[in-house]
Amino acid sequence: MKSTRPKALVTRKIPEAGLALLRDKCDLDIYPEDRVIPRKLLLEKIPRVEGLLCLLSESIDEELLSRAENLKVVSNYAVGYDNIDVTAATRRGIVVTNTPGVLTEATADLTWALLLAAARRLGEGDRIMRQQKFEGWGPLYLLGQDITGKTLGILGAGRIGRAVVERSVGWKMNVLYFDNKLNSELELKYSAKKVNLDFLVSNADFISIHLPASRETHHLINERILKQMKKSAVLINTARGSLVDEKALVKALNEKWIAAAGLDVFENEPSVTEGLSRLENVVLAPHIGSATIQARDDMAKIAAANLRAVLEGKQPAYPVNPEVFS
Ligand code: GLV
Ligand code: GLV
User: Is the same domain home to 138 and 263?
Assistant: First the structure.
């Protein structure tokens, strides 16, 4: 008997907590291999499905959407959705959803892990130990940056930016933020000051990026901005690689315009710009901001619930383009 349940494609295995919400409701096609689904296969499968649960590693663009004759919903397994042409989806009445909130704390934690590691040269230290090059304690050996009482500059005062600021209280930091909107909670609770980008980058000791990727934020951190930073500044990026001109950053780290950087995201993931991985003063992480068991389970549940809601004709909890319903 032919199934009357809606067809949904899941582009890679996600935690079972999410898949379990879909098994009885959809005719599920899960790409079985633990790698990015080949583009060709995705293009082949898309015309048949009503629901797509995809990852940030897949480009949901005009070419793909133009073949998606039956598609009602693109449920992105991520908070960021720069991998999706939302305008093209909206034009076709396709709902796009994301998974905000549940990865905020995990991502803020990783931001601090990178900040601490970059400030205290932990990556270098780890490499020295592994290569058995440690020759003993020294008064001037592997000196890093203090954090207590320094100025934290946040680019983007959304959920993750706020959670990063919340964690700075123990370090008694002054907080500056750059955002279109005033964040009264940050101002009242953490005495944070809203400033322009130039002021922030020239005055902050630690600069952390929490803005979404868009045309407006592309290469927000470029050569001109890097040159304005303090020589002791530490730059952290757990948002999206495209916000930083990676070539300019390599130059800045190499020529010591700034002290260090900590990166979890890259301009051309999974590749890394030539020269970056040879630098000692950068800590590199393989896009693991949300990679905790709890966060990934919760993301799976939300992504599945979003997909399911649309396929049942209901409004999902986290639409990115709610105008589709109006
Ligand atoms: C991860 O990068 C996300 O956007 O969820
Ligand atoms: C970003 O979208 C966030 O959750 O702060």
Answer: yes
User: CA–CA separation, 16 vs 199, rounded Å?
Assistant: 46
- Give the separation between CA 291 and CA 209, rounded to whole angstroms: 18
Task: Report the CATH number that the domain containing residue 121 is assigned in CATH.
Answer: 3.40.50.720
**Tokens coding 166:** 């919340």
For residue 27, give its domain range: 7-102+293-325
The answer to whether the pTM exceeds 0.70 is yes
Within a domain: residue 2? no
Q: What is the mean pLDDT of the chain?
A: 97
Ligand 2 interacting residues, C-beta cut-off 6 A: 79, 100, 104, 158-160, 210, 212
As for how many domains the chain has, the answer is 2
Question: Do 98 and 200 have their domain in common?
Answer: no
* 3 state DSSP class of 111: helix
Q: How confident is the model at residue 311 (pLDDT cuts 50, 70, 90)?
A: very high
Q: Please indicate whether residue 290, judged by its CB atom, sits closer than 6 Å to ligand 1.
A: yes
Q: What is the pLDDT of residues 111-163, one digit of tens each?
A: 999 999 999 999 999 999 999 999 999 999 999 999 999 999 999 999 999 99
